[in-house]
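Sanity check. The docking grid for NAP depends on where the pocket ends up, so I'm generating a full predicted complex first rather than guessing from homology. Inputs follow.
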Amino acid sequence: MEFNIPTKIIAGEGCVVANAKQLGLGKRCLIVTGHSSAVRSGALSDVRQALDSIGAGYAVYDRIGENPLLSACAEGARLARDTGAEFVVGIGGGSPLDASKAIAALAANDMPDPMGLWDANVNVNPPLPVVAIPTTAGTGSEANAYSVLTLDGRDVKKTYSSPNTFPRLAFLDARYTASLPERSTMSCAMDAACHCLESYLSPKSTVFGEVYALRGIELIAPALWSMADFGGEDDFAAYIAPQREALLTGASMAGIAISITGTGFPHPMGYNPTLYCGVPHGLACGMFTEAYIEYCGAAGGATGERLARFMRSAGMSAGEYAALFNRLLARADIRLSRGDVRLDEWVTNAGGASNFANCFAPYDTAGIRGLYETVCERYMTL
Ligand code: NAP
Ligand code: FE
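Predicted complex below; grid placement will be based on this.
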């Protein structure tokens, strides 16, 4: 058994500026962001201040969209090379952080086709070092080696990862998540909770990963209750503010947990509603959590026992956990239009994923279509 998280995590309010010297991983960097969250969260301004204070130069690539396209990563990598970047600073949610890892690898390996990312004969040089600064509390990308990318024109996600794709450094400052709206906050918290559950129920789970999965859900579950109970009487941002730090810490722990195990079937099932219907990633995975819990519970034996152990850390029964997810999903008001739910393609896209076997009770993939039909019907509009 091995346990190696080669990411140094620095956490706390003001940690970027206070630890500016640690950002000095080279003379110049490329800052990779989404469209506006890096500015709105205040993180970009802190990073600029920190880089200026140590005399490091930078260029900014701010064209990473949600569910980042491989082509955008290739464009970012060209800018990194053209500007002589020696390291990459990713600021944002999982999309810019995942993109930063791909950009760092593509910048270090001049390849004509970015699909070479997955070809060990082409992707030979180690990536540029990456600094990850999350502005959402969800994916845990700052603490793992995964880079989930969308292949252009194919409505399909493909994960790139290697032992050297972990960020070198991560800064966790919960203030950067304060500007995240209610629905995104719920989605990201749900994603992190899914990571804890799917990691804990994976046969690849080790005692080291379990610590992160169980402590992670202890931190996240109270915030999920708060969000479900929010009556809209106050400003959501002020209401949830006391929970932001626990959410961010819990999400990073969940990210470490899945770095050991990977995720279970709610993840590949969720990729299709995200790419075809625009359902945010965490909500899309959460749509399949009740089915996952029921499936694992029905398996009984060791799987049932592990599920019960997880729920003790979550502080509720499996039934209450599923009901909580459903309340949050109802709040999020997910709507799928029948024309977008293209089951033949969805079953093909999800069917090949190894995640179905990544459970103590491997899921029989013959049931994928039925599961989609049952779950999607609840959210179907016309
Ligand atoms: P995201 O796709 O990075 O961002 C979603 C939206 O939230 C964007 O519109 C973004 O705006 C906005 N946003 C981000 N931070 C904000 C802030 N502080 N204030 C206001 N708006 C903010 O969301 P995500 O859920 O964090 O990441 C999802 C992606 O991560 C998916 O592609 C998923 O497949 C991947 N993922 C990766 C892992 C992993 O282990 N690496 C795990 C799970 C999921 P901007 O466009 O302006 O940035
Ligand atoms: Fe996820």
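Relevant for the grid: The chain has a mean pLDDT of 96.
Also worth noting: The pocket of NAP (ligand 1) is lined by residues 34-37, 40-41, 66-67, 92-96, 98, 135-136, 138-141, 144, 146, 148, 176-177, 179-180, 184, 188, 191, 255, 258, 281-282 (CB under 6 Å).
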